[in-house]
Sequence to fold (215 residues):
Amino acid sequence: MSKLKLNNVSYRYEKSSENVLDNVCMDFDAGKIYTIVGKSGAGKTTLLSVLSSLARLTGGEILLDDQNVAKIDRYRFRSKYVGVIFQSFNLLTHLTALENVVLSMDISGKSFDTPKKELALELLGKVGLSADEAKRRVLKLSGGQQQRCAIARAVISHPSMILADEPTGNLDAETQDEIIGLFKMLASEGKCVIIVTHSADVAAASDVTYELKKA
Fold:
């Protein structure tokens, strides 16, 4: 059974008569990396919005562990099952990397057996940020360091799915390889990792690649 299944998923913007997504069918399993590729305007970022329940479907259904996502409270779905990594990071720049991750833990509403700061520092170290870097304000960090922080923030509350929008788009080749390595680590821990990308290298490193075409 697939972790996540899209059955004839369609989406169009309000007041538009044309679908951005049209009868899309895809299957996603736990423990694998998936890449979504396609030309600009094919609906890749829209698909991530639909998968994260930020946008409501026009048609079709999305099943999580064989349960229709439409029947799950949207806030509960996003806070419990999904971690999103945005193309522009969307970190709070007046906070430190550590504070950004702890805030994500607060928002999740989940309880943790270990103090949040301790868990956050441990995870930031795991993704390659030292304790000193973790305590720097986000604007004092490089693009690669900010991306590491964004990944930590997305996974700190143990979602089963990681959705990433062009996570290596602004990074150099060496840093891109390191970020790919982090995604492989997450997949090895049983996460379902779904990445929208224009990078042939990222697509080549994934287990499955889906191509979206304009509806």
User: Anything to note?
Assistant: The chain has a mean pLDDT of 92. The radius of gyration is 17 Å. The beta strands are 4-11, 21-28, 33-37, 59-64, 67-68, 82-85, 161-165, 192-196, 208-211.
